Amino acid sequence: MLTIDRLSLQLPLYVSWWKREWATCLNECSLKFSAGEVHAVVGASGAGKSLLAYAVMGLLPTPARLSGQIGYKGEPLNASRQRKLRGRELALIPQSLNALDPLARTKRQVAWAAQRAGHSSRHARHAAQRALDHYQLDARAQQAYSHELSGGMARRVLAAMAHVSQAQLVIADEPTVGLDPLHRQRVLDALRGLADQGKTVILITHDLRHALPIADRVTIMRNGQQVETAPARAFQDSGASLTNTYSQALWLALPDNGFSSHAVSHAPQTEQEATVA
Ligand SMILES: Nc1ncnc2c1ncn2[C@@H]1O[C@H](COP(=O)(O)OP(=O)(O)OP(=O)(O)O)[C@@H](O)[C@H]1O
Ligand code: NI
């Protein structure tokens, strides 16, 4: 469905106002995402998760140096295809709440997302209403402008927009940050539901604990590199079937597993270090 092959990304880093260097933000990432699965991409802040999402959607900042291949349904996903499919076949629930249009009320904004996906305007209004109800956005929230919404409400509006897009591929970038447990569960269940309908769902999160119950596979990222891709069931007991010490440390650091956060910060960066350690 979606294949990422040796994707590397460098972005400019201004070491002083006249001197620009290129910082490697993604380093030879190769990933495959299949229809019908929730594939979680998990890593600490700055690991490169959002940039991976932007690279797939064609929303990287410029200038950027990108190498490697991205394929979608067997064909290269180039810039013109990304433009054509974005908001239709490819949907992103962005991490930043600034993605909401400050000049449109909630309901209109969700209806636009549905219309963009190809619904007639009447259908779009219905689809928007269903999605808004699903995410428990009440009449007041539906009439509100984005600055009048709480962070958690705004995040649910973004989820509703992705929901109405009818996309084949949904990338949800930290979709549950700031949500209470009930709403978090609704969003996660909705993502699982999309995968069960045969769609491809990429769940980006720093929280392995929330991802595991709905994920089929998990990719752990660190410092722009993909550390390991494993089935979600590998994250159990002592994590012995995980091949990488950092993935194991992330798993063991979860509160129910002994809470050894020391292990995460001291996990070796590379396999080479792991052998040395
Ligand atoms: N527009 C940009 N220009 C330069 N560097 C950037 C830009 N956006 C991100 N970076 C750098 O790329 C790295 C990865 O960023 P990214 O946003 O993908 O991390 P992330 O894994 O999504 O983190 P978080 O969990 O905090 O959202 C970071 O070191 C960040 O500083
Ligand atoms: Ni991010």
Q: End-to-end span in angstroms?
A: 38 Å
Gyration radius (Cα, Å) is 19 Å
Give the CATH superfamily of the largest domain.
P-loop containing nucleotide triphosphate hydrolases
Measured by DSSP, the beta-strand proportion falls in: 25-35%
The molecules bound to the chains, other than polymers, are:
adenosine-5'-triphosphate, nickel (II) ion
Low-confidence stretches: 273-277
Binned, the helix content reads 25-40%
The CATH architecture of the largest domain: 3-Layer(aba) Sandwich
Morphology call: globular
Describe this structure in words.
The protein is built from 11 helices and 10 strands. The strands form 2 sheets. A 6-stranded mixed beta sheet has the order 6-7-8-3-9-10, sandwiched between helices. A 4-stranded antiparallel beta sheet has the order 2-1-4-5, with helices on one face. Residues 273-277 have low confidence and may be disordered. The chain has helices at residues 49-57, 79-85, 106-116, 121-134, 139-143, 151-164, 181-196, 208-211, 245-252, 261-265, 271-276, and strands at 2-16, 19-33, 38-43, 65-72, 75-76, 90-93, 169-173, 200-205, 217-222, 225-231. Helix 3 crosses helix 4, helix 3 packs parallel to helix 6 and helix 4 (121-134) packs across helix 6 (151-164). With 277 residues, the chain is α/β, with parallel strands linked by helices. Strand 9 and strand 10 (225-231) form a beta hairpin. It has 2 domains: 2-89 and 167-276, Rossmann fold, CATH 3.40.50.300; 97-166, no CATH class. The structure holds adenosine-5'-triphosphate and nickel (II) ion.
